[in-house]
User: Fold this.
Amino acid sequence: MVRKNTNLESTLPLTISAQYGLVDQITYFNNRVASHDVSNYYLVLNGEFAYNKSTSDGFPFGAVKRLDLYEKGVLSTLYIVFSIKNTESTNSDFFTVFFDTDRWHKGVSERAAEGARNHGLLNISADDFFDIDLYLPRQETEQKQIGAYFKQLDTLITLHQRTCNFFLLEHCTYCKINFMLAWEQRKLGEIADIVGGGTPSTGTPEYWDGDIDWYAPAEIADQIYVKSSQKKITEQGYDNSSAKILPIGTVLFTSRAGIGKTAILARKGCTNQGFQSIVPHKDELDSYFIFSRTEELKRYGELVGAGSTFVEVSGKQMAAMILMMPSTMREQQTIGAFFKQLDNLITLHQRE
Assistant:
């Protein structure tokens, strides 16, 4: 049931954040966008959902969020506000998960009426919104289990994100000095060797099925460490290719289509030419510290590699990457150890 804020039960203006959900508009934008008279706004109570029916191009359709942070708030009538009844066949916690799925976003995008385009906005009517097909387990018990699991996981991730922020504020040199960056600029090639790979002739059986690990980009997925490749080469194959033996602690970095997948070598090995791997200089670069900056490496690789017909980043380009680095190796190791612990904990709970 949609209610107007006629009696001014709340004066807290809300907005939808894809990351944080329904949040205080003033805090989120550092500005008040809502009218000062909110008596004609919708009143939203804790546990109710809202959807912004005008969604900008480039963002996923169907961003629906539940009000969890406050007891009540108000939203412009440009939003769609609704509640999920907890019955024998529906569970509210489950829908907070479902509304973040690709299936849901696809359903909304198919219903969006592009005819009402205005400054890059695609609108969907309330009638079309509520006519979107839903896919859910028949039993509320199963819905509850799914909802509870993801709620617990989200809480855990949020907790560790806060722990991470606290750690950085308390322990990192750059945060202690008036919250200014006290790190120094370094080129990646100054603190690591960037090493490409090679492939022995596939037509020579003597080069293959040896005991030297030889990695291809397709093998690098979500794992942190790799210690055994799918294919292996012989000493003869190694001697007759441009592959290079990489030491333990090397950060493998895929350099072609699918740029930016990384993993740390737990056992020495080599790669094909689809990598520009990072071999840290002793006492200058910590393996896990640079691995924890995978997204930064990926963005850089995609940017500089985008100019060619076949998207690829070279070793020379990677070596030229400018990084902000702690002034001491100890600080790198401390930060690397923290993120290693965090990654291990998240991996453990994903398995559970």
Notes: The chain has two domains: 3-137, 184-326.
